[in-house]
RNA sequence: UGGGGUGUAGCCAAGCGGUUAAGGCACGGGACUUUGACUCCCGCAACGUAGGUUCAAAUCCUGCCACCCCAGCCA
């Protein structure tokens, strides 16, 4: 299912070329920053990083890119590891960017000695001033021509903690007139008197991503450093660092387009706001596009991987229709989720010619075809059916129950609607039917157009949580103006209905197809007295009123 | 207006000088059905634009247009 892509993507072409002409091996890495939970966008990178390594007989490392202690926390480390494994990937080595702080420092010293790095005393604002603009060249810092010895001494004192945060930086000496702004003497190290979640108080200077990343890659023996498009303009700098540090191993950075999904907020910044401002219950709220949220909602790793394989890899900015994701989920769940009956919005149905107190167990197949066995449901005089499966005055091709109409109750008998009660508000309260004893399921030739799901009167009360997209499509500017404006008020609907008795003991995470209703997952965190089911995705419904 | 990227149907995405321009999602029609599901058939629409090179261009060249990324001591 995942191998249906025959065509090679552009990354595979590069890799194959390199394996032919450079080194006959591949090692990749997945480098999340531990500042949040992994989401479906990360899953794309995961599939590419781990997938490429596997396809070409290499390995992939997991490396936490933790060079900025102001934004990171160890809290996320375990969650990220868990999600990667859940998705089905295993790393060869587990590293932290901070493991390389010592080596980064030594290499910085090396660059200073080579005369291609210097300590700059310019303030942040001055540096911005000196950098120039997109159309005008920058100008050189007055500190750019310091002697090697002076740079060495200052850098050593930076490390020793003699200077205040922001008072100095170590910069690469490249070209202040470069048309590529990233090459205008980028900062390599900044001073930050702050404890790091991995290294504690050992360091008060931290390397920048642009300096640390290529070093980490090169040391780890990474051959292909796959990342998203926004790093394209950083590649010359990446190569510069590898070159200046004189690494034997020269990893190749290849960029690809990140994943966007319709009606889905993928920006970590906004996801964080949703959590911190209480719009959702947490990172694992089933409405979140995080892997933990999707897991709780009932998405399977197989479906996610299949989806990502279908989306493919390219450099074109794109927004994939969530319908494609949902299709993959349905396809996967259709083959594995047991068919059970649930009534989300119940209405009472009385079989008037069935004696009170008489019951009959009827069989329902677990999966179509019957090879997965069956389970039984108790049929009797009083039942529940779905409220929307009955219409007093139905539209044209309504196959469900209507006054005088006939319908089969799944696995049981054909019933005919004889009458119904309505309350003062006009709401139907009870439907009265008669059943045809000659129409027992499996022993009857007669066909009717509609088949309804139903439940006995002793069914188990359950809570159903129906999810709609959390965010409406909007621009970042809109979101900055008024975050609440983007919220979908109907993103969560809670319904109280019933499920088959067997589901009283549904294990958290179990997935089912509630016939004619949709795919649901027993809630992972449910502690309620009655079971809670999250709707993973609805069934396709070709009936339109 | 500097640099780096990207433009193939409603949405993804193959294609690499000669193809009727793959495939998937979505959509429409039909068959089947004890889930209006699934499955199975059938249909569906595209090379940003203007020139040029060539017997032949989505593929090569040039101009133009549109969109994305870069002016953090973030990643």
Distance from first to last alpha carbon: 35 Å
How much of the sequence is in beta strands?
Answer: 15-25%
Principal-axis shape: elongated
Task: Tell me the number of strands.
Answer: 25
Neighbour order of strands in the largest sheet:
10-23-24-25-21-22-11
Helix content: 25-40%
Please, what is the oligomeric state?
single chain
Overall mean pLDDT score?
A: 95
The helix/strand class is alpha/beta
Total of helices:
13
- Give the radius of gyration: 31 Å
What do you see in this structure?
By secondary structure, the protein is of the alpha/beta class. 26% of the residues lie in helices and 23% in strands. The longest helix is centred in the first third of the chain and has 16 residues. The radius of gyration is 31 Å and the shape is elongated. The chain binds one RNA strand of 75 nucleotides through α5, β6, α7, α12 and β19.
Write the layout of secondary structure elements.
Elements: H1 10-21, E1 27-30, H2 40-55, E2 59-64, H3 75-87, E3 94-96, H4 101-113, E4 117-120, H5 124-131, H6 148-159, E5 169-172, E6 187-191, E7 205-207, H7 209-220, E8 224-228, H8 235-244, E9 252-256, H9 268-276, H10 291-297, H11 301-311, H12 322-336, E10 338-340, E11 342-343, E12 346-351, E13 360-365, E14 374-379, E15 382-386, E16 406-409, E17 414-422, E18 428-435, E19 451-452, E20 454-456, E21 460-467, H13 476-481, E22 492-499, E23 511-514, E24 518-522, E25 532-538
Parallel strand pairs: 1-2, 2-3, 8-9, 10-23, 12-18, 16-19, 21-25
Antiparallel strand pairs: 4-5, 5-6, 6-7, 11-22, 12-15, 13-14, 15-20, 16-17, 17-18, 21-22, 23-24, 24-25
This protein binds one RNA strand of 75 nucleotides through helix 5, strand 6, helix 7, helix 12 and strand 19.
